[in-house]
Amino acid sequence: MKKNTFILLGIIVLKIVFQFIIISPAYDLHRDEYLYLAEANHLAFGFIEVPPIISLFAWLIKISGNSVFMVRLLPALFGALMIAVTWKTVEEIGGAVYAQVLASITLLFSAFLRINMLFQPNSFDCLCWSVLFFILIKWIKTRQTKYLYYFAMVVAVAFLNKYSIIFLMAAFFLALILSPYRNLFVNKHFYLAILLSFVLVSPNLCWQIQHGIPFLHHMMALSREQLEIIGRMSFIQDQVLFFIGSIYVVLTGFFAVCISYNKKYRIIFLTVYFTFALFLFFKAKGYYAIGLYPVIIAFGSVALERLLMRWNSIMAAFVRVVLIVIPVFFFLSFFKVAFPVLSPQEIAKIMKDLKNLVCCVGKMGKTMFYLKTLQICWVGKNWQ
Known about the structure:
This protein is mostly helical. The chain has helices at about 5-20, 30-40, 55-65, 70-90, 95-110, 110-115, 120-140, 145-160, 165-175, 190-210, 215-230, 230-240, 245-260, 265-280, 295-310, 315-340, 345-350, 350-375. It folds into two domains: about 5-340, no CATH class; about 340-384, no CATH class. It has 18 helices and no strands. Residues about 360-384 have low confidence and may be disordered.
């Protein structure tokens, strides 16, 4: 087995372990988790809130004993697989082991720890988006027809997991029109792949029609009761905070895929840009867009690796270490506030600092929230 494989397996194990230690055993499951777990007892081709795949995962948990361990394990596995797909994406665009490790560390010590903490459609959704971009890169490199069908099948699976894939696909078609690959529109396999997707999702589409398209009513209620209140600025702030400890990788990724990288990958930047624009226009929640980041982080990691290869060996070695350590530092700094690792009794002991923190959030917003969190976390006497 190659050394690179051992490193990847180590990161995957670390990811799964972290998903368990960031939640105190003092807490029960989240209310949304109970909703999705209950769907295992009412299997159908659709539900008011979500498509049917989450109910199949719940059914797997049910037949395996309905243990909290399994509830935690499934999203952790999806997160680990997402890291593995990003690892392979880095390899496909020409990155070596350092870029693979940097991308993995960036994903590991990020908001994905919270996404993969709960049994919800979000973890599998992010995995599907990562796979789609990986397949797109494979098609760009090889132009093999089979990847069109793979892409179509993953789109269908993503749709049956969460309807937000519609935004990504709308953005992809806009990007395709503006890219050199627009000749796909005269390729019969392109339309056969689209037909395959529709066939695969047709049971859920029929269910929606038979029940009066409850998804639209759900989305209207969500927009009226939540999205209108959140606002667009909150969406933008969230994008900054998701990878606050490794923002340099994300920004480098945007620059790399847009400007300095081979133009053949420009369609990926356009797809990401249009997806962000759609989410921003519809006032989406910030985490709706988090599935876009693995591919951007892959490009950013490769660009940073190539940049460091041009530097003096000693300086490059130092910077390499620093770029990997910074996300870990931020994770350790925010660990006890960003994740439910403290029991209610422990929280009661630090209530004074938490009240100050809440006050800070109310007055100065989310950025100051994290700065204040960092200050509190380093006051050791309050965290004994």
